[in-house]
Amino acid sequence: MAEIATNLRAVRQRVDRAAGRSGRDPSGVELLVVTKTWSPEVITEVLEAGHELLGENKLQEAWTKIPELPASARWHFIGHLQRNKARKALGLFEAIHSVDSLRLAHHLDRVAGELGKRPRIYLQVNAAGEENKSGFAVVELREALPELLSLENVELAGLMSIPPAVEDPEAARSSFRKLRELRDGLEEEFEASLPGLSMGMSHDFEVAIEEGATIVRVGSSIFGPRGVAVSTVP
Ligand SMILES: *Cc1c(COP(=O)(O)O)cnc(C)c1O
Questions:
Q1: What separation in angstroms does the CA of 29 have from each of 50, 192, 233, 234?
Q2: Residue 112: which of 156, 142, 152 has the closest Cα?
Q3: Most buried among 30, 94, 160, 229, by the most CB within 10 A?
Q4: Residue 205 CA: which ligand 1 atom is closest?
């Protein structure tokens, strides 16, 4: 599995080049390696290659895998989170990329307070209004923002999106740009700081970086396609 280390290096290089092309400092773009469906043995390859920022999208799966991996790994949650799982999630993850309602944000804030934690949260935006995806509608987000900004135990890291899947990465550019413009507009309107933009996946992370992504979530470019290799321990 030496190819995982090779793929990881290649992706990081592409991240750095995309940042450079757009006049940005590569250190301003984090690479979140998405390990969903892959076994602790496979994930260990990434850690041994010196990369510690990892993402999972299912709490149940994360709950069994994370304790088997070194504590040096830093985990971000990128899937849909139910309120009744918030406590579990905050025990495992330092950031939640997928906060999609004011109720969930309030709940995370309360639980974080009880646990004495201060997780970073990204507000997931469903700008295209896709039915099968969660996230704030733009109007909703604007309405909720004053209350979100008042939460004391979570750090508003910024915005996150999963744009509609398209063949050509260039076609995703306008979605990424819109998320950045939305962020810029909200920062100005509410005199708020929303520094992070979690956007871009294997297919389109370079375009996302050119449009301002601060963290890209990349899985299959590093591990290969999911569901092809044997991905869990027998
Ligand atoms: C699976 C997943 C990714 C990574 O997708 P790849 O195409 O494998 O890079 C990124 N973001 C979210 C929310 C995901 O669920």
A1: 17, 21, 32, 36
A2: 152
A3: 160
A4: 9
Q: Please give the number of the atom of ligand 1 that sits closest to the Cα of 218.
A: 9
Give the range among 36-50, 66-80, 153-167, 201-215 with minimum mean pLDDT.
153-167
Alpha helices by DSSP H, listed for 72-198, are 86-92, 102-115, 138-149, 173-190
In the chain, the domains with their CATH numbers are 3-223 (3.20.20.10)
HSE-up of residue 218 (Cα within 13 Å, Cβ side): 31
Beta-bridged to residue 54, according to DSSP, are 33, 75
What per-residue confidence (pLDDT) applies to 230? 45
Atom of ligand 1 nearest to the CA of 97: 13
227 Cα to the center of ligand 1, angstroms:
14
**Site to substitute for ligand 1 among 14, 96, 217, most atoms within 8 A of C-beta:** 217
Local confidence band at 1 (pLDDT 50, 70, 90 cut-offs)? low
Rounded distance between C-alpha atoms, residue 72 and residue 122, angstroms: 22
pLDDT surpasses 60 at 116: yes
Say if CB 200 and CB 213 are below 8 A apart. Answer: yes
Give the residue whose CA is nearest to atom 10 of ligand 1: 217
